[in-house]
Specification:
single chain, about 450 residues, alpha+beta, Nucleotidyltransferase, domain 5, elongated, disordered C terminus
């Protein structure tokens, strides 16, 4: 007997003994009064065994034949192994005229190991131990947030944190996560701390080429190329939990740093970047922990400032055409004629695109003079913009829309340099004609 049957026997025994009415028994058992009278009659006639459901132990009237079950499972196993229970049910009905309930087929598939329940599909992320040495692994990430609340525009905070000590190594406010932004933050990090063993990041396109079959490029990003020249490794996490150290630091900073900026009255990125070193020092004194090993894995930066600037910039190779021109960033760059430039037809030159000074075109270390033929630089329609850079892209679009853009259309005469001159009269009587008085016409 089940617990419910035993409870019914106990209550109905009280009814027979006169300690409880049938109406009270129905309320206790949560059944109707008519059902209570029927159960009481069965109890008096057959005893406790009469309260057991008559279908208990019997095969359900809605159950499927064992042969149908084996046939359906075999079809799913051999033909529709990749189908889920819902789709497999529809296919069995359409192609094999097998009318089987979705949940019934789900139970059959689970019993045969062809389907995992929601509980069985759960994945668990085991906690990763910290690295043992300071500077061995630096986690990096950007946190897009309204850091200045309603006092300023939202921006992104780039966070560099040491995995062994949870020490904030570098903080910087930037408009969005871009290669130039990370170059600026990396420059400050290398100047202050030196070269770590490796950086640990997500799969953002700044760090990783997400299309290995891309026709252009060298197979690595600009940020990856710069780290390779500095002999620093870049590793990408497969999930957010893998780089949980910096993710948790972002949530903490979105609470503590916002309050600190509010109390300091800071409203823009420039003032915020000046405030961040002081904040990071106080934060590290309070929350950082000592590393397991005392050694510092940072290596000395043996690169001159000029060489470091050449590394931390956009560098791409471009083909020089017969007209000594090359294309870069929707612009046509024309090399000035010289003895060296005349030999570069059909060769590849390197373009250095700096964030703080004009673009340079170099060949084997020699800078080549050039002029730029540029079309109107507008944000093109249907441009692909990542979610992390959407706010910054919209700000750029708005700034462009505020500028009245009215391109002047030149005629063929203007392009040829034609200038309109007044009409001239030639001949011996030129002066007399020019100075003759007007003759009044009369009728």
């Amino acid at each position: 007997m089940s617990e419910r049957d035993l409870r019914r026997i106990e209550v109905l025994s009280d009814v027979r003994a006169g300690r409880r009415t049938v109406v009270a028994a129905a309320a206790v058992l949560a059944i109707s009064e008519r059902q209570a009278f029927r159960l009481l009659a069965r109890y008096e006639a057959d005893g406790g065994g009469g309260l057991i459901h008559k279908a208990r132990g019997r095969t359900s009237n809605r159950s499927h034949n064992e042969g149908i079950r084996k046939y359906a499972v075999e079809l799913v196993k051999t033909r529709y192994a990749d189908f889920g229970p819902t789709l497999a049910t529809e296919v069995l009905l359409d192609k094999h005229q097998l009318r089987i309930g979705k949940e019934t087929l789900r139970r059959w598939m689970m019993a045969e190991g062809l389907w995992l329940s929601r509980t069985q599909r759960r994945t668990f992320h085991q906690p990763r131990l910290r690295r043992e040495s300071y500077g061995e692994l630096i986690q990096i990430d950007g946190s897009d947030h309204r850091w200045f609340e309603q006092r300023g525009e939202p921006c992104t905070l780039l966070v560099f944190i040491d995995d062994a000590t949870s020490k904030l190594m570098q903080l910087r406010f930037v408009p969005s996560e871009s290669t130039d932004s990370y170059f600026e933050a990396l420059n400050g990090y290398l100047t202050t701390h030196g070269c770590p063993t490796a950086f640990y990041s997500d799969k953002h396109t700044v760090f990783r080429v997400n299309r290995p079959d891309a026709k252009g490029g060298s197979g690595m990003t600009q940020f990856g190329r710069a780290l390779a020249e500095l002999n620093i490794e870049i590793l990408c996490a497969n999930s957010s939990q893998a780089k949980g150290r910096v993710e948790r630091a972002n949530r903490t900073l979105q609470d503590r740093l916002v309050k600190e900026l509010r109390m300091a009255g800071i409203c823009d990125m420039t003032a915020g970047n000046s405030f961040l070193p002081q904040f990071a020092e106080e934060f590290n004194n309070k929350f950082s922990i000592p590393a397991v090993r005392t050694e510092n894995m940072h290596r000395r930066l043996n690169v001159q400032a000029s060489r470091l600037a050449d590394i931390l910039c956009h560098r791409e190779q471009r083909h020089v055409s017969q007209q000594l021109s090359l294309a870069y960033d929707r612009r046509q760059i024309i090399l000035e004629r010289s003895e060296m430039a005349d030999k570069l037809t059909g060769q590849y030159v390197e373009v250095y695109d700096f964030s703080d000074r004009p673009l340079e075109v170099r060949w084997k270390g020699h800078s080549l003079p050039y002029r730029v033929f540029s079309k109107d630089q507008r944000v093109s329609h249907t441009a692909i913009v990542e979610n992390k850079r959407l706010s910054h892209a919209l700000a750029v679009v708005k700034a462009q829309q505020d500028i009245k853009h009215q391109p002047k259309i030149q005629t063929n005469s203007d392009k040829g340099g034609y200038k309109k001159r007044p009409r001239q009269v030639y001949g011996p009587d030129y002066k007399e004609i020019a100075t003759a008085p007007a003759v009044e016409m009369t009728a």
